[in-house]
Amino acid sequence: MTRRIAVSGAASGIGKSLATLLRTQGDDVVGIDLKDVEVCADLSTATGRSEAVERVLERTGGALDAVVACAGISATRPATVAVNFFGVTELLAGLRPALAASRAPRAALVGSIAGTAATVPEVVDACLAHREAEALDAAAAAAARGEGNRIYPSSKAALARWMRGVCLTDDWAAARIPLNAVAPGVVLTPMHAAHAMTEEQRKSVDEAVPMPLGGYAEPEVIARALRWLISAENTHMTGQVMYVDGGAEATLRGRDRF
Asked: Which residues, by range, are in coiled-coil regions (predicted)?
């Protein structure tokens, strides 16, 4: 059965790989990104998010079977929070009503192993309170005091916590819409192309994200996990962060965290 699925970040990396997998199996995919997709929109702004939701609903007649939020950036600046948290949560919230007519509605997002790292508490708290201006100011302050490397982990930690909370609400659980996340380790996408290229950089990344099973992943590995999460077969898994990270989370947090 053909399903209609919206995928953000569909122009590159994990999102592009997922869109390709879904189309190969016969699904109708509406891609969302800055360019080269069906719906071009900037998810770093509130206006861009609203436009993305409106255009997806126009193209689909207001009906979707699944939504996958893959769009994200890794940078030491406030825009990372705008895209990774608010760009994801507002897109999912805006498209959630379109899932209501589906016989098997599903939703998923891309987290990160970085969500287990040190964060900026002020950024996380402001995100969870849905105060975007405050979150961006807190991220800017963190960058100014030399903690810019904590902005990305903060955005992904806040996103996982948001997902864990809303998945149980009437809008999601009572509506029988599973909502889950995949948390990759190091993935060989354009976002990571500038990292781990020199031996020194690679050593630093390997220390931060040890991946004893298989090493760095291709984007298709993450896409396949997302494809299952939004499949009709996933009837009872919700609120889970699925670490597809070559063993990084188990290595870093140990056997007592599960």
From this structure: none
